[in-house]
C-alpha cells in the first residue's frame, strides 16, 4: 500500500478488509511493506513475496488483494510467484466487483460495465501469453495478434456502452426537466460511504432504501419527497458514497450521476462523527466535491451517529459553536427536527421557493 498522507497504511488496509468483507470474502490476514519505490516486477520485494506465499499455504488462501493499482505484468508475476494457486487482484478490481454486485438500475449497471472494460483494456495481455508458451514459442506473435483483436473488440463494446449510457441519461434528463418545472427544491446527501446517508433518508421519508453496515450500500441516486410539519416540502437525494482511492475509471463512469449534485439547491454532507477517521473521510469527500462544480451551492454539515460517541453533549456544544453543523442520530431520530429546520433556513437563504409555494 502506498499511503497518500491522509490515511495511514494500516488504516487503508483496514478499509480494504471491510471492502473485501462487503464483497463477500473472509479476510485471513493482512500485511504491508515500506519501500522507497515499488518493485516494478512484483510491486513488493522478494522477501515479502516469500512471506505471503508461506501464509497462502498455511491459511489456505484463495485471493490476494493489493491496496494499490497493479499493472498487468505485476498481476501476472505475482500470481506466478505465489505458485499459480491464488487469484491476485487490486483495490480497484475489488471495488469494481462490489459496484457490479450492487448496481440496481440499468444506468448504474451500464456505468459499472463501462468502468470494468476500461480497467481491463490495458490489462488484456495476461490472457494470451499462455498461447505462446504452449506452442514453445513457435507461434510467436500469435498472442500479440490476439491481444490486438481483443482490444479492438473491447473498444467496440466500450463505444456501444457509451452510446447506450448517453441515451439512458438523455431520458433521465427529460424526466428531471419535468421535475424541475415543479418548484420543489432538491437537497443532495453526500458523504463517505457508511456515513449514514441511506439511514437519514429512510428516517426522514419512511423510504426503504437499503441501509447496511457495509461499504457502498448505495449506488443509485434515490430521490424521496420530505414533507415538513409546516407543510413545506423538499426532495432529498441520496448519492453514491465516496471513498479514498476511488478508482478513476469509476469516477469517470459515475461523473454524470455525480454532476447532478451540481443542480441541487443544497448539499448536505453527512459525516460519521463517531468514526476515528472522521476528519480524513471529510477531506476525501471534499476532494471529490472540489472536482465537481459545486462551490456555489450552500452546504450543511451533519454530524451523524451522535448516539455512538462517548460525550454527545460536548459534541453538540462544539457543533453549535460552528456554522452550518447539525448533530443528529439517523438511528434514534435525535436532532432530525433541527436538521429539517436548518434545511429550511438554508433554502430560504438561497431561494425564493418558500414564498412562491406558500402564498
Ligand atoms: P450510507 O452508506 O452513507 O448510506 O450509510 P447507511 O445509511 O447504509 O449506514 C451505514 C451503517 O451505519 C448502517 O449499519 C446503519 O444502521 C448505521 N447507522 C446509520 N446512522 C446511524 C446512527 O445515527 N447511529 C448509529 N449507531 N448507527 C447508524
Give a written overview of the molecule:
- By secondary structure, the protein is of the alpha/beta class.
- The chain folds into 3 domains: 9-98, Rossmann fold; 103-162; 184-357, P-loop containing nucleotide triphosphate hydrolases (Rossmann fold), CATH 3.40.50.300.
- Helices cover 48% and strands 12% of the residues.
- The protein is built from 14 helices and 8 strands.
- The protein has a 6-stranded mixed β-sheet with strand order 4-5-3-6-7-8, sandwiched between helices. Strands 1-2 form a two-stranded parallel ribbon.
- It is globular.
- Residues 352-359 have low confidence and may be disordered.
- The site of guanosine-5'-diphosphate has 21 residues, from helix 8.
Characteristic key phrases:
two-stranded parallel sheet, 359 residues, 3 domains, Rossmann fold, 48% helix, six-stranded mixed beta sheet, 8 strands, alpha/beta, 14 helices, binds guanosine-5'-diphosphate
Q: Give the helix proportion (percent range).
A: 40-55%
CATH architecture of the largest domain: 3-Layer(aba) Sandwich
- Strand tally: 8
Tally of structural domains: 3
Can you write the helix and strand succession as a string? Answer: HHEHEHHHHEHEEHHEHEHEHH
Look at the structure and name the CATH superfamily of the largest domain.
Answer: P-loop containing nucleotide triphosphate hydrolases
Name the poorly predicted regions. 352-359
Q: Helix/strand/pairing class, anyone? A: alpha/beta
Overall mean confidence score, pLDDT: 83
Compute the CA-based radius of gyration.
Answer: 24 Å
Trace the largest sheet across and list its strands. Answer: 4-5-3-6-7-8
How much β-strand is present in the residues? 5-15%
- Number of helical stretches of at least 4 residues: 14
The rough form would be described as globular
**What do we call the CATH topology of the largest domain?**
Rossmann fold
Largest β sheet strand count, sense and barrel closure: 6 strands, mixed
Bound molecules: guanosine-5'-diphosphate
First and last CA, distance? 59 Å
The level-1 CATH class of the largest domain: Alpha Beta
